[in-house]
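$ ./design --mode recover --in tokens.txt
reading tokens...
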């Protein structure tokens, strides 16, 4: 990894500033002569700048998007110069709560300033300036990374030719915020948290981190997917088969879902920072580009020039001229689909994006696709019904939006190349 130091103060949305900070980043591929082939990768909550490849001598050190990025892969590093950057406030190298404040000489701890998605994008833009990159061929990310990609198109539309926003949204729902708050309370009420200044005490609030991660993983799977993956299977059934029985204990792990959640919590608590978790989940809560436009998302998106139609090869927005193309299903696209459904537009189809084989060159425009085999399918129209596959928690938000538009929403699953409708209507 590389590190870029910035001595000048960065003004934050809160009105605070941070100075003498550093951003950790990694690059893959070669920047071409006219610097037109750069692709910025934005990470989600628990990821980092290490998006691809492995670290020599380190077991299981694959980058978190290694299946997507590399020579001959969907994001081909023989064509593109890929940049992975770790955000401010994170715990993987960029300046965060565990680092020394230049003002106090002690770890920031809970005094690290609150940062937002917009603050991260501004810091990323400064990094690109330092690298001499004026325009990105694309910016892409999933979940919280998708929010950053979306924000790039709003904050710096002239610097982005394509945007790929995967499994993301333009804001969180009240339920999303509620889950984040419960997770934060689990951390701050851990006796080892010490008001966020636990570094000097040589302790880590692991109990709170474990519970916070368990709560998070409940939200990452829909009810259908969780039942299909775990059901009521007992953990001991893996060894004992049908002979497994209840342990009749309130403390021992009985069900496979319990084992899964505890494993995820234990693993997370060993490497993640508690203050970072508070900062990043709050950044998720705050992201709402429509807020400054009376809640009207279309007004917020006006500065990013979109053609209001669907690319027949991909479910999402097809970009116009040299601005953003939203691929995969985003809530931005969901809102548009709802508008089309309400208007009873005969062209209001919901084409499937399930893999595909697309090629894309750095300077090509008009909605070309960065992705070759990115399997992200949320919606398909079947006999006048909207089929929602429980691949992502966001699917249920989609279902509600489409239901309010007068669509019949059912649940289904893709098997052997075809869609199997479930028996019940979910709404």
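writing sequence...
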């Amino acid at each position: 990894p590389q590190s870029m130091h910035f001595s000048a103060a960065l003004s934050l949305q809160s009105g605070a500033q941070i100075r003498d900070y550093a951003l950790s980043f990694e690059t893959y591929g070669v920047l071409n002569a006219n610097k037109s082939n750069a692709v910025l990768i934005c990470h989600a909550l628990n990821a980092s700048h290490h998006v691809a490849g492995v670290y020599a001598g380190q077991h299981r050190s694959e980058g978190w998007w290694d299946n997507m990025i590399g020579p001959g892969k969907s994001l081909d590093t023989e064509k593109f110069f890929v940049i992975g950057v770790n955000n401010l406030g994170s715990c993987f190298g960029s300046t965060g709560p565990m680092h020394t404040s230049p003002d106090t000489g002690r770890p920031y701890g809970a005094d690290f300033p609150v940062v937002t998605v917009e603050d991260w994008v501004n810091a990323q833009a400064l990094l690109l300036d330092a690298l001499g990159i004026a325009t990105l061929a694309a910016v892409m990310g999933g979940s919280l990374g998708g929010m950053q990609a979306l924000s790039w198109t709003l904050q710096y539309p002239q610097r982005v030719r394509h945007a790929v926003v995967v499994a993301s949204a333009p804001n969180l729902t009240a339920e999303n915020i509620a889950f984040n708050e419960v997770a934060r309370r689990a951390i701050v009420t851990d006796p080892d948290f010490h008001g966020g200044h636990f570094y000097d005490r040589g302790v880590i609030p692991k109990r709170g981190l474990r519970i916070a991660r368990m709560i998070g993983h409940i939200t990452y799977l829909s009810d259908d997917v969780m039942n299909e993956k775990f059901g009521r299977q007992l953990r001991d059934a893996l060894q004992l088969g049908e002979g497994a029985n209840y342990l009749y204990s309130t403390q021992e792990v009985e069900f496979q879902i319990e084992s899964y959640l505890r494993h995820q919590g234990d693993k997370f608590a060993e490497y993640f920072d508690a203050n970072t978790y508070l900062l990043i989940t709050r950044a998720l809560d705050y992201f709402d580009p429509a807020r400054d436009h009376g809640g009207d998302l279309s007004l917020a998106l006006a500065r990013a020039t979109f053609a209001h139609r669907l690319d027949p090869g991909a479910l999402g927005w097809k970009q116009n001229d040299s601005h953003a193309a939203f691929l995969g299903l985003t809530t931005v696209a969901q809102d548009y689909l709802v508008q089309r459904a309400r208007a009873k537009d005969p062209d209001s189809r919901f084409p499937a994006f399930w893999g595909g084989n697309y090629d894309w060159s750095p300077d090509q425009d008009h909605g070309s696709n960065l992705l070759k085999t990115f399997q992200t399918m949320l919606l398909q129209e079947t006999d006048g019904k909207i089929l929602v596959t429980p691949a992502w928690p966001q699917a249920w938000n989609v279902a509600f939006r489409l239901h309010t538009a007068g669509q019949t929403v059912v649940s289904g699953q893709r098997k052997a190349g075809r869609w199997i409708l479930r028996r019940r209507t979910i709404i």
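exit 0
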